[in-house]
Amino acid sequence: MHSSVEKPSTLIAIRPVQTYIYKENKAINKRNTCLGKNTEQIDFYAFNKDERHKLLSDSFFENIFKNDIRIKIVIDKNGKKILCFINLKDAIDFYKQFYNILEMYFIHEENPEYFLCGFESKLDHITLPFCKTYEKNNKNQKIIINTHKNKNTNNEKNNDKCKEYTKEEFVQKIDYYNKLKHFYSKSDAQKIKILLKDLKTDVLKENTKDLCVGIYTNVILQEFLSESDNKLIEEFLRSLENDISIIACTKYGAYVIQKLISLNLSVENKRLLCRYFTKNAVHVICDDIGNYSIQKLLKFDFSELKEIFIKNLKVICGDKIGSKVLNKNIEYFTDSKKLIEKELNNFVNFN
């Protein structure tokens, strides 16, 4: 039990749970190997008190942090877990629920998003392309966003160096961006809207990706893009680069990308847009959300994108979503129509 009542905040730090040293004998070692198994397969009574405590600490609470909808994001920093909650009430409820089990305390930072700078986690290879802090001035209702610029320069050659993700990595990236949906509050979104209305686009250039996937900010970006000329749209595209294919597969980012595709784009922007999709196009084609963006892109008649379909025909035809996409848009593949129909028929007959 904690001896004093702390002033609550939306950030809670969890101190490292004590690890236990086990005797090196066969019986104990055999039981230790069970700690990695599914909890449904473990006989808890086979463990002593300390071993049961470790099992619950390492496994049970990890799942809680991962699945608790009150938690916006979990950050591993300096050996501690920083839990960022959606609002103050959720943080207090969590504290009340676990204060007598976990060693934790509230963190009071003027800029809570500081903890999103350089965080480490099981997805530490998937990090924000910028380090962000907020300075809010309640007096003039402005939001200032400071960033460390992405090392990549904005030129078309950089796209050639963009990574082609495996299916697992691609799904992890989608999950990562989806978890940022509450990163900006409704109040933040309104302030960003004012900045964009005044054409102060620095906020957009350096924070494009997470603005796209925000539950509130995606709407603001759609409105902004609808009123933008092709020069601003080009800057927007170059800010997204290869990750545009991932954002097109997120719950809220998909709205932004589909809106972008539907605009009256210049030939150069159409080409650039399609090119950024090609690296991971197969994953997008077979994604239940992303495939809608690909279908819209096919209308641009971009040869490199259509070649992706042909080169990966068996993979796409063998996928439930991919085969539907091909069948629905076969009109765009006049030169390869017979080949596609053959593969689609093979897939139907096989199943």
Automatic annotation (TrEMBL):
<dbReference type="GO" id="GO:0003723">
    <property type="term" value="F:RNA binding"/>
</dbReference>
<dbReference type="Pfam" id="PF00806">
    <property type="entry name" value="PUF"/>
</dbReference>
<feature type="domain" description="PUM-HD">
    <location>
        <begin position="139"/>
        <end position="351"/>
    </location>
</feature>
<dbReference type="InterPro" id="IPR001313">
    <property type="entry name" value="Pumilio_RNA-bd_rpt"/>
</dbReference>
<dbReference type="InterPro" id="IPR033133">
    <property type="entry name" value="PUM-HD"/>
</dbReference>
<keyword id="KW-0677">Repeat</keyword>
<dbReference type="InterPro" id="IPR011989">
    <property type="entry name" value="ARM-like"/>
</dbReference>
<dbReference type="InterPro" id="IPR016024">
    <property type="entry name" value="ARM-type_fold"/>
</dbReference>
<feature type="repeat" description="Pumilio">
    <location>
        <begin position="239"/>
        <end position="274"/>
    </location>
</feature>
<protein>
    <recommendedName>
        <fullName>PUM-HD domain-containing protein</fullName>
    </recommendedName>
</protein>
